[in-house]
Amino acid sequence: MYKRNILASEKQQVTYLIKAVAFFWLITKIWSYKTWITDRMYPVIPPLEFLQYIPGFLHEFLFGFSLLALLMVLFLKTSRWLLISLFLSELVSCSLDTVRWQPWEYMYMCILLVTIINFHKPKSIVLLMHMFLVSVYLFSGLHKLNRSFLSLAWMNMILIDFLGLSMDIILKYKLFFVGLIIPIVELFLAILLLLSKSKKKISYLLIITHLVILIVIGPFGLQHNSVVWFWNLTMIFILLIIYAKPIEPVTKNFCALNFYWLILWFVLPILSFFGSWYQYFSFNLYSGKGDQMYICFSEKEEELKPYFEPETNIVCKGGKCINLQNWALSEIKSVPLPENEIYTKIAAYMKQKYAHTKLKIILYNPQTQKRVGL
């Protein structure tokens, strides 16, 4: 009887998990709807060239199907076939446009696939989600251990933009390197989440970090990257659900049976530090690392007018200019993948579309101020 009650409780955990994910996934997709359709100015860049000929209505059909499937997951009894249908529609949709490879989309897809594979093993789902969360916080912390994070995210975004501190105060009180506390705490909490017996208490500390993030970048803070607000809320609910009950120890047998997940979450992300695995699939978040893409025009294109930077930009030497990240956040409410192969494809698309004007495309590293032309 005791074992049955435990199993029922774990089934309930998984049910709550899937419905919480479906709720925030639905809101996120509606909020960032232009990410999922082709009726937009921001380039649609598929991973394979032949996929660029897929008609726009298929993108819209897949978007509509996903919304319907998420509503069904939210309000109906969860079935394996429904989850499979949702997973396949998302997989096809993401294969048509690389900007859809967002970190939150990757996380939701992982949760979906874990649930599909272990549909009748709720205990395994809960334990795998625990391991996934450890991976998220571990690599998020590791990626922030760099000077670019201190300069761009900590100093510019938090100390100057959010707290309103001047450079004089930052230098006087040596606040620059204080920012290292953030990745160190994130790493420390990830390790405690893995090793500590008090995982529930650790989860509360992680929930506080997500609340702080929402205060900083949310609607009452910097109002930055709005699609991530919903992701932080999702993380709070996932932490509450997964650690509502004590987590059983991870055994060697469990690791052997689920080795492919451990490779995906703990081995492949290591390759991202060497440019051999996608940054967003390794939870490189707000690390400040990488280049930003600038598109310099010889004349102002009227259709792109809402996305032009102020005339004082330094990359295009005061000329007419678009910052790709700001364009994406403004129009489709998603950010470009910080991968050079994607930037190269976007550069080729823009040069072909605007061949009538002199177009210069530059990858700019804000930390090193290095410029590379594409």
TrEMBL record:
Domain of life from the UniProt record: Bacteria
Protein name (Swiss-Prot/TrEMBL): Uncharacterized protein
Transmembrane portions of the chain: 16-33, 53-76, 125-142, 149-170, 176-195, 202-222, 228-247, 259-278
Keywords attached to this entry: Membrane, Transmembrane, Transmembrane helix
Statement: the UniProt record of this protein carries the keyword Transmembrane: yes
Transmembrane in keyword set: yes
